[in-house]
Write the structure tokens for this entry.
Amino acid sequence: MEDDTKAMLRLKQGDRAAFDELYERFSKRIYNYVLRYLGSEEASEDITQEVFVRMYTSAKTYEPTARFSTWLFTIATNLAINEYHKSRHTEQITEALLPDDALPTDERAVLGELEEKFLKVVHQLPENQRTAILLRSYEGMDYREIADVLKVSEKAVKSLLSRGRERLIHEYQDYHL
């Protein structure tokens, strides 16, 4: 059993340190995932907090039927989808998505521009394609994990990713820096 699941089972037994451990391990990943999904820092902070509130309140009924990270990202995805529909995503992609300062300025600008374009196109994708692309591209989830989050088959995930990638390629075709 993986460490994350063990920590969640400890939380289920009332170990508050396990909550801190899981928060430390996942809060930044959840925040970044939601930020890429919505493009809003404020909404991402709120949803990240809500994910961990739900994790805490669900601890007593938690059963490790899937990887812990899959379970947690399912909560994050559902909350992000709800917020996306609520806000209709009017915010611009924020500067928080720009690459690391370790790169030379001109490379950072190019990569930042590419990521901004990528995320703008991703935000135009249908909901399941958008979720699959973000979980695969940024979280490195495999087909099975994405299928668990979306509650679809692995074959459906492959199809969602394929159609999403086709749309991304089409949109990038005419993009020049």
In short: The domain at 98-177 is CATH 1.10.10.10 (Arc Repressor Mutant, subunit A). The CA atoms of residues 143 and 154 lie 6 Å apart.
